[in-house]
Amino acid sequence: MNGGLVVSGLSVHYGGVRAVDSVSFTVGAGECVGTTGGNGAGKSSTLKALMGLVPRTAETIRFGDSDLTKVKARDIVRHGIGYVPEGRHVFPGLTVEKNLLLGAYVRKWKGPTLTTLGEVFDLFPVLGEMRDRLAGALSGGQQQMLAVGRALMTNPRLILLDEPSMGLSPKLIEDILAVLQRLRAAGHALLLVEQNAKLTFEATKTCLVMENGEVAMTGASQDLSRDPRVRQIYLGL
Fold it and tell me: Using CA atoms, how far apart are residues 137 and 135, in angstroms rounded to an integer?
């Protein structure tokens, strides 16, 4: 798949426990794929494995022309993959602008970096308005936008997002959905891990439903949102 992500036989072990069991999927260029399921389903472990943050085995992890099984974790971002970790992990004692500029550490300064910074402020005007404010003073939703903006500063072709709605109010979850829809409209490929199945189905085109470290179901997000089993187990309907 030219320009896309191809994963096959991905497994993650924590001691004697297999958290992810031979998972396979693809994310095409410009495609938005969701991964949902309950706690302990293996969703976040899958993203961390792709970023090289946990021990893993895999037949294939290929992004475009790059074999990521041979790339160290610190270098994966240089291959065009941005990562928004669970819990946001912004630098609270630094300003919004400095948090964003830290996200551009893999790029050459100045012109291209400042151009991307302007694009992030265009995408998230509230960050531009608060560029000199400490990140620790932002609301949870604003910090999530900052975490997404920081990932965008690497100029990625694919963005991995881990539980972006965690700990947010229903209103802020709607704001995050709007952020994801803006990213889609801008042509970014997304791989979204999210326990909130409703948000996942609304934000993505294709979705994987994980259980016990395996892909239990896969298909078009709209179709899965209408599936009686998914509605009962994951939507509580």
Answer: 5
What are the two backbone dihedrals, phi and then psi, of residue 149, each rounded to the nearest 5 degrees?
Answer: -60, -40
Q: Is residue 67 exposed (0-12), middle (13-18) or buried (19+ Cβ within 10 Å)?
A: exposed
pLDDT, tens digit, 9 for 90 and up, residues 150-184: 999 988 999 999 998 888 888 888 888 888 888 88
Treating both helix axes as pointing N-terminal to C-terminal, what angle do 111-123 and 140-152 enclose, rounded to 10 degrees?
150
∠ Cα 193 49 207 (to 5°): 30
CATH number, domain with residue 61:
3.40.50.300
The pTM assigned to this predicted structure is 0.90
Cα–Cα distance measured from residue 153 to residue 105, given in angstroms and rounded to the nearest whole number: 9
Give the Cα separation of 235 and 230 in Å (integer).
7
Domain total of the chain: 1
- Per the structure, the complete domain to which residue 101 belongs is given by 5-233
